[in-house]
Amino acid sequence: MTLAFWCVLVTALMPYAFTGMAKFGKRDPDAPKTPRYDNHAPRAYLEQQTGRKLRAHWAQLNAFEAFPAFAAAVIIAHMAGGNATWINSLAAAFVALRLAYGYFYITDKPSPRSLVWIGGLMCVVGLFVVAAV
Fold first, then answer.
1. Distance between CA atoms of 53 and 38, rounded to whole angstroms?
2. Domain that holds residue 60
3. Using the 8-state DSSP alphabet, how is residue 75 labeled?
4. pLDDT by residue (tens digit) across 18-53?
5. In this structure, what are the phi and psi dihedrals at residue 87, rounded to the nearest 5 degrees?
6. Per the structure, how many domains does the chain have?
């Protein structure tokens, strides 16, 4: 199995790390009265959070949104017989950029977050280019 395929697995699991931060992380000091996690209504709980917990939830949602295009790009690049070094490099870069994206999202740094989001998108586009060459 290639590094890129392992990156697909890591990317598939990434949203769950962010949701763990949203559900079980420390309370936001700016919102000490928010309720503790309620497994009876997890979506309602997440939507009433503020600060870091809410941003971790949003990072989770975005990670779910980014996953399909990335997974498809890796699979298509492999099936098309693309250069393995490029495929693995772009996949690893995507994972690193998505981790940075989550960090910047949770810590409320919108400009760097947008830059790494664009970088991740360029990795996906790059994988399709590798497939086409």
1. 14
2. 3-132
3. H
4. 999 888 866 666 666 666 777 788 888 888 888 888
5. -60, -50
6. 1
